[in-house]
Design a protein that fits this description.
3-stranded mixed beta sheet, 4-stranded mixed beta sheet, CBS-domain, elongated, 392 residues, 15 helices, 58% helix, alpha/beta, 10 strands, 3 domains
Amino acid sequence: MPGRSIRIARIAGIPVGVSPLWLVIVALITWSLGASYFPEEIHGIEPVVAYALGLASAILLFASILAHEFGHALVARRHGIEVEEIDLWLLGGVSRMRNEAHDPADELRYALAGPAVTAVVAGAFAVVALVLPGGTPATIRVLVEYQLLINCLLFAFNLMPAFPLDGGRVLRSLLWRRSHDMASATERAARIGRGFGYVLIAFGGLEFFSGYPEGLWLAVIGFFIVAAAGAQAMGAQINAVFSGVRAAELMSTPVVSVPARATVAQAVSEFFIAHRYTSFPVVDVAGRAVGLISIGQAQSLTAEQRERERVFELAERDPELIVGEDEDVSHLLEQPAFARVGRAVVVDGTGRPVGLLSITDVQRVLRASALADRPSDGGARSGGARGRTAIG
């Protein structure tokens, strides 16, 4: 999956970033096209011209992918889905959404928007190829024809019913409309997507070991589809289990807080050793939560540093790690800070800590939910992820 990206632009209010690996794939495309494709298509072409065409083709390809992702993003935003950013990365592009579609019809519109833009781009290159005059240089003609070909392949590939590709999202929307259950539809679409992924891995591996290096790309894409489908299915399960569940229902209590002005050495002796917890809320002089300190952070310092450094200086102080009692747990799980740290401080209306919510608390509920969803001895299944799970 895409990792941390470098922000390069903001278009229509949507941030656009590139993964460092994007530069690698641009270089590989440039080298591949410049070394073989354009020399084969244009007799006698100079190497510098061939590689220049390879670079131009790579840039035009990713411009087409960016247009494809904006098709998704703009339609999603129009239907109430918040778009965080668009990333270009190793295998193309991805639109990061903060939430899911509200109903199957919105999901279908969102899924088809990207391929629709790609179809328009391919059509535009087809028109250009048809109207080019007879005396047009071969470099221009072959460049246009390559973009037409690659956009047609992009269109066909994205419409494969392999979730989370666009075709898989179309499939999910149809399953969702039929079952009226998004979690169930996602699980089925993800299962089909993983099947397609395994087929691509097998086919790509067979090609690679038969002497066709291009098969390696098919295998890599297959691995991506398998991993992404699994992540989407897990995300749907988590949303089904925790949507509407308040942080106060899952948090661990009682909570012991560490004063922000204390030294790290005091925190170790008076809190970590005395209470044997692995993390504590950090509070100011008024008792309001200002952060979170863990035993791992304390262990990262030498004894001398612990005596000198204050807890406030060491603590995690990301605002996402301090949540109210009514915070929706599914929303908290989407926050990057919580994913990184694995816990958050739950506070009351005055900002004072009343509990800690950790990833362990979440996993405990997930295991219980999975147990409740297993077939009983008689073969019947409970509702499981088909509705909100009661926490008690």
